[in-house]
Amino acid sequence: MKKLLGIMVLGLLWCNTSFTESTLPPCQGEDHTQYVNCYGSYVGKDYSEIYNQPGLTADYTGEFGNSPGLSHGKGISKSYVNGEYTNGYVGEFKDDKFNGQGTYTGADGFKYVGEWENDKIHGQGTVTYADGDEYVGEFKDDKFNGQGTYTWADGAKYVGEFKDDLFNGQGTKTWADGAKYVGEWEDGYRHGQGTLTQADGRQYVGGWKDDKLVERNNIKTQIVKKEPKKKTSDDLVKQLKDLNELYESGVLTEEEFVKIKQKLLN
User: Fold this and answer.
1) Where are the domains of the chain?
2) Among 45, 107, 227, 246, which has the minimal tally of Cβ within 10 Å of its Cβ?
């Protein structure tokens, strides 16, 4: 799994959100550390010690609460490391931390829209990565936890349970070529009872351990009828690669592997 956030810091552009609707009065004076129950802004606040990140500063525009100088309510902020823009946030704050609904966007293309708790992604939300991958579901302490759907840019998809960013529990993964596994997972691997159905219809049912089929229950073989087409060298290379993966993962016995390979090469 991809790491969700490198540094939990502030940011984001206005995002068409207007805070002129705030019922709080404008903050008075130039010293933002004294702002209480008002609407105001600051530029270049030093967060390097708070987040243990040298050179980290932030700009903020929004609401302040009962604690002097701390963002509280609706607001926007941009963050910088040594003057270079790194990421942003627009949404709700509590005691200078992300709390409630908010949108975080990183300079690297990472984006999260959803719920926050004490500066951490927590609750329901959606993560989109720069490469096109996406996760929609539940989070706890910055990690995928609970029910969710992870979709890869190539069209592959996993729908099911997560724990600490990994597939855990019941889930279904569909690969881009149409193969599908339905069953149990542990720490990101097929583990427990499950069924693997290949794109051509062959089906393998049994017990899995560390992503390998170790105990066969009732293996069914069903070939989906397709219109015959001329095989290309690229098709053969891909079929042999898929066949080798099935053998190495324990889905096929050596005898089955040799027999199917001979048919492909004939």
Assistant:
1) 1-133, 154-226, 231-266
2) 227
